[in-house]
Amino acid sequence: MSAIAPYPRTAYGYRTPGVYFEWLDPQSGIRELRSDVAGFVGIAEKGPLHQPVRVTSWTQFTSTFGAHIAQGYLAYAVEGYFANGGDVCWAVRVADPATAREASIDLVDDEGSPTLRLTATSPGTWGARVTVSVARLSQGRFSLVVRLDDGTTEIWRNLTMAPGDPRAVERVLNDPGGGSRLVVALDLGSSSPFPASLPNPRGAGLRRSTGRLSGGADGLATLAPSHMSGEGAPARGWGIATLEDVDEVSVVAAPDVMDKPVVPVPPSRPEPLRCEVLDAEPPLPPVQETASEFPPPFADLEVAELQQALVRHCARLKNRMAVIDVRRTDTTPELALFLRGAFDSSYAALYYPWLRVPDPLRLQGILRPVPPSGHVAGVYARVEHRAGVHKPPANEPLEGVHGLTAETDEIAHGDLNEAGVNVIRVFKGRGPRIAGARTLSSATELRYVNVRRLLLMIEKAIDVGSQWTVFESNGPELWREVDRIVRDFLQSLWRRGMLDGARVSEAYLVRCDETTNPVEERDAGRLHTVIGVQPPWPAEFVIVRIGKTESATEVSEGAGSA
User: Fold this and answer.
1) What is the DSSP track for 67-102?
2) How far apart are CA 227 and CA 97, in angstroms?
3) 123: closest CA among 105, 103, 106, 108?
4) Are 293 and 128 in contact, with CB atoms under 8 Å apart?
5) Which among 236, 43, 38 is positioned nearest to 126, based on CA atoms?
6) Which residue from 42, 166, 339, 447 puts its CA 20 to 30 A from 64's CA?
7) End-to-end Cα, the chain, rounded Å
């Protein structure tokens, strides 16, 4: 923030005419914060376990966590999020750390002793699709070509096993900034290090060997609810709990608490690599599928407890909201209403039914049923980008959706809406749309998603923008400054239409004075500010009244509430 000096001030050395800038104290303002960033917890093909990763595109997600897999819905959710308007999210891959393993391969020297181990950068059977080619050069040098079957290729030239050399294989491949994204190198310290002892007669050309990594495990067969929720996990945390330290997240979803139909894949084993000298480059080994692990389906009570853990996570942090999916088998309004009865929180919203989206795996045809939470979170982001967090994320099209697992008529929709279940419907000529914006709260004032999200944004912005008050003198001067910056912030929201009310007095109130800070509170080192706001309520029901008179038909419109 800057101020322009209208004339030269000799006290500050201003001697000539011109425009001068003065930087003011950045403490004196509160800025609106974004609340569209989603956090997803689920099952992925690859990537770090139980570690939140910031993702800014679908391409970045696939390079880090892989594409669609039969065992999980995470990729479908993130793809739907970006397709519907999201631009930043955090993803957490879950698995059982005790059983998940990285695929690897040991290269041996000409005497048969292991000399170099290449290990996949993350656990999973995906490592069996990594091919390694070794080219032996002169003077104890060699090159590595590491390929993934999707076309990703890394070429590492002029490597050596000598630890002190700048091209030492461990130093080059394991470099955090420019190293391999597919494998990690480990020098096994053989007495005859590969490839220095291997002959390379002049004129014989390159000598190559090729093979695949093996031995990876996804860690899904032993997946437990605690791996998803993080409750009872070690100090580093698992699953949902790992998002607690990511302040940027404002919407959370865990689509993989739902069960997945098991698609059998025939098991096979890749052949181990032997680094033999060859006169010509051999063909690459064929891609061999490895037996896929599927997570055990959670019982209904376990699914409910995991969803409750997601809601508790949001209510405890008070800076985010959960998007809850109905179960795959909840294909009737009655079952959705039964699930809704388990919740009473303004920090969550429930959506029904599941979506049918294009499936590149063709598991059940060209479309696959998936939970709606990822697409819904994307709509939250789209609406906030276009209008603001105060606008209800409803009556919005769902991109990339080609159908629903259940159709809802007007009567059932009314029952679900009154209960706080947000229905997704296909409207003739308008496609699938979200037709509800209600939380799972029984409190009338916190009934709507946009109201809860607006309040979360205001609370977080004031909290971040008032951190400078800590250890300041708790007196009238501080009270007036806090009152001023909070009023300025709320005034800006009101001018943008984010608060309701024809006048300022109707839109918000702020009080920070001796009445809110009595002597006993000041002695305890506490500063209290009372803030009230009037959020805009959505016009859920637009009523058109048509009356007939002797001369004409009269039409009037108005907004009603439930």
Assistant:
1) S--TT-SHHHHHHHHHHTT---EEEEE---TTT-B-
2) 9
3) 103
4) no
5) 43
6) 166
7) 45
pTM as predicted: 0.86
Find the farthest-apart pair of alpha carbons in the chain and give their distance in angstroms, rounded: 108
Which structural domains are found in the chain, ordered by start? Answer: 38-97+220-260+295-446 (3.40.50.11780), 104-212 (2.60.40), 470-562 (no CATH)
| Whole-angstrom distance, CA of residue 183 vs CA of residue 130 | 9
pLDDT of residue 13: 62
Q: Beta partners for 345?
A: 440
Cα atoms found within 13 Å of the Cα of residue 384, Cβ hemisphere only: 25
Considering Cα of 150, then 152, then 156, then 161, what sign does the dihedral take? negative
- Residue 419 corresponds to which tokens in the numbers above? 């209960």
Kindly report the number of other CB atoms within 10 A of residue 119's CB atom.
21
Q: Which residues of 165-196 are buried (b: 16+ CB within 10 A; e: fewer)?
A: eeebbbbbbeeeeebbebbbbbebebeebbbb
Cβ(282)–Cβ(120) below 8 Å: no
The answer to whether 537 and 452 have CB atoms below 8 angstroms apart is no
Question: In 10 A of CB 244, how many CB atoms?
Answer: 15
Q: Are 422 and 435 in contact (CB under 8 A)?
A: yes
The secondary structure of 168-195, three-state, reads EHHHHHCCCCCCCCCEEEEECCCCCCCC
Q: Tell me how far CA of residue 428 lies from CA of 372, 394, 432, 516, 540, in angstroms.
A: 20, 17, 9, 55, 20
Whether the Cβ atoms of residue 499 and residue 532 lie closer than 8 Å to each other: no
**Phi, psi values for residue 53, rounded to 5°:** -125, 130
The number of beta carbons lying within 10 Å of the beta carbon of residue 555 is 9
Q: How far is Cα 192 from Cα 175, in angstroms, rounded to an integer? A: 25
pLDDT digits (tens, 9 = 90+) for 121-138: 999 999 999 999 988 887
CB-based contact 277:265 (threshold 8 Å)? no
* Cis ω for the linkage preceding 353 (within 30 of 0): yes
Token duo for residue 240: 């949902």
What is the H or E stretch that residue 154 is in? strand 153-159
| Helix and strand totals (H; E) in the chain | 12, 24
- The span from the CA of 24 to the CA of 42, in Å, is 45
Burial of 525 (0-12, 13-18, 19+ CB in 10 A): exposed
- Whole-angstrom Cα distance, residue 378 to residue 264? 32
Tell me which residues of the chain have a pLDDT lower than 50: 1-8, 11, 196-206, 266-282, 287, 553-562
Collapsing DSSP to helix, strand or coil, 362 comes out as coil
**Inter-CA distances, 483 with 27, 323, 436, 469, 498, Å:** 13, 35, 36, 12, 20
> Phi and psi of 363, rounded to 5°?
-70, -40
Q: How far is CA 153 from CA 242, 357, 543, in A?
A: 32, 30, 61
Question: Residue 547's pLDDT is what?
Answer: 54
142 exposed, middle or buried (CB, 10 Å; 0-12, 13-18, 19+)? buried
